[in-house]
DNA sequence: ATAGAGCAGTCTCTAAATGAGACCAATCAT
DNA sequence: ATGATTGGTCTCATTTAGAGACTGCTCTAT
């Protein structure tokens, strides 16, 4: 099945369910993993488990607030686990679950696409901006 | 190369460039196509060209404001083209470019993942919420 | 002829999400 | 004693998204 067919089929299916965002996997699931921070966190954890502040260092421009929230969301979705070690001060380790690891494959495909097409997209943007300025 | 390797490699590369969001393809490109509305618009256009209000009807809960903005962004990125026909009232047709169509494949992979894993994710959420309530 | 609807948007106002950064208690190194 | 690190929470300001009125033009139905 071609990509067009798959996507059009999905669209039809969820049009049939009245576009209920609660029940539609695309909105429900991709809203989360398509997002900026969740994506980055999953990529960082692809290399192995990391602790809270190590994640913060690995993604320097995320705020602690967003880091906490993103980790909670991903934990709730079962994509990663949170293990607290009763050291002092406590250390908390985050690691991908099997489900989380299974997300890496489609994500890698998307990242590769982004890399490969980045120059074209940059060129398109430059063209668009130049044309807009000319008008 | 495994998904882990690909992603870790990308992470390292862009860590080396100081996490500059401007130059990093992942942030730069995926911020757009990973997002909710752009994804949905591209999926709708996968079936063929559509006009502005047809797109609005196909994605009923997008506001005109967001629809306009999303279409402009995608046009700027070279993923779709906007053709104005000088009818009265003017009709405007949006269609995917080759670049836009090339995005469908990785997107379809992600959508298929989302569909396949949706039940697991739902179950994980239910478990998480139950445990949180118990505590 | 005239009211209503559709076209492709723009504009404004409000509501929600995000980011920046102070603060917490405990512990270790200097 | 000072400062740093641990994993967060909390508040406040900024940014972003959403709801919906409004535009000018045309076609249709009454």
From TrEMBL, chains A, B:
Top-rank taxon: Bacteria
Signal peptide: none
Keyword Transcription regulation: yes
Ranges for domain HTH hxlR-type: 24-122
UniProt keyword annotations, A-Z: DNA-binding, Transcription, Transcription regulation
InterPro entries: HTH_HxlR, WH-like_DNA-bd_sf, WH_DNA-bd_sf
Protein name: Helix-turn-helix transcriptional regulator
Originating organism: Chelatococcus sambhunathii
High-level lineage: Bacteria, Pseudomonadati, Pseudomonadota, Alphaproteobacteria, Hyphomicrobiales
